[in-house]
Specification:
It contains eight helices and four strands; from the N terminus they run E-H-E-H-H-H-H-H-H-E-E-H. By secondary structure, it is α+β, with helices and mostly antiparallel strands.
Length: 199
C-alpha cells in the first residue's frame, strides 16, 4: 500500500491528520509506504501573507475539541513565527523518508513546532532532530540550500491536507482515526480484489 501525503509543514490540519494516520496504521499488520509532498504555504493564500503560527491560532476554536479528543496539546500561545522559506525542515523530512526514517522525523518536526513551540527552520533544531535519528552528518553535508523536495508549485491543490491511497482514492482534510482506518481497510480490499498484491 502506498499513500501520497500532500501537506504544508506548518498546517495544523496536516499535523492532526498525520497523527491520526499514524494511529490508524497501527491496526494493520501490512506495510504502508508513505511519500510526503510539500506545498508552499503561499500557494494557498495568493496575495495574502499569514504566518503558520497565526494560521494555527485562527483555527484554535475549531481545532481544540478535535485536539482534546486526539490527546494533542498544541502550544498555541507559544508558536513561533516561521520564515517565508520553510524548505529546510521539508528537505530533512524528505531525506529521512528516503532512508526509512521518515515517520519518526516527520513526527519530531511536527512535535517540535506544535507541541514544543520551536522554530523548525532553525538549523540547531533541525540538527538536533537529525542527530536523534542518526541522519545529521550525511544530511548536512549533502543538502543543497536551493534544492526543494517534491514541492508542488503549479496549479496547487486548494485543500490540505490530502491523502491519496495507491494513487486511486483521494481524501482531503483532517479525517478522524475511524475514517482513516476505514479508508485503509477499503484500499487493502481493493488491492486484493484486483489482484495487485499477487503481481
Amino acid at each position: 500500500m502506498h499513500i501520497d501525503f500532500i501537506l504544508d509543514i506548518g498546517c495544523l490540519w496536516s499535523y492532526i491528520t498525520w497523527r491520526h494516520l499514524q494511529t490508524a496504521m497501527r491496526s494493520f499488520p501490512r506495510p504502508v509506504e508513505i511519500t510526503p509532498f510539500f506545498v508552499p504555504p503561499s500557494s494557498f493564500f495568493p496575495g495574502f501573507s499569514i504566518n503558520p503560527a497565526d494560521r494555527a491560532r485562527l483555527l484554535r476554536g475549531k481545532a481544540e475539541p478535535l485536539l482534546r479528543q486526539s490527546g494533542i496539546d498544541v502550544c498555541f500561545d507559544a508558536l513561533p513565527d516561521l520564515p517565508e522559506d520553510v524548505s529546510p525542515p521539508c528537505r530533512l523530512i524528505s531525506y529521512a523518508f528516503a532512508r526509512q526514517k521518515g515517520n519518526k522525523v516527520l513526527n519530531d518536526v511536527f512535535d517540535a513546532f506544535f507541541i514544543s513551540g520551536q522554530n523548525i527552520c532553525d538549523t540547531e533544531i533541525l540538527t538536533r532532530i537529525a542527530d536523534e535519528n542518526g541522519l545529521s552528518g550525511v544530511f548536512f553535508r549533502q543538502c543543497q540550500p536551493a534544492v526543494l523536495p517534491r514541492m508542488i508549485y503549479k496549479e496547487p491543490l486548494r485543500a490540505l491536507p490530502c491523502l491519496i491511497f495507491d494513487r486511486k482514492t483521494m481524501i482531503f482534510g483532517a479525517q478522524s482515526v475511524a475514517c482513516l482506518k476505514n479508508m485503509l481497510s477499503l484500499a487493502f480490499c481493493l488491492r486484493e480484489e484486483t489482484g495487485i498484491e499477487q503481481i
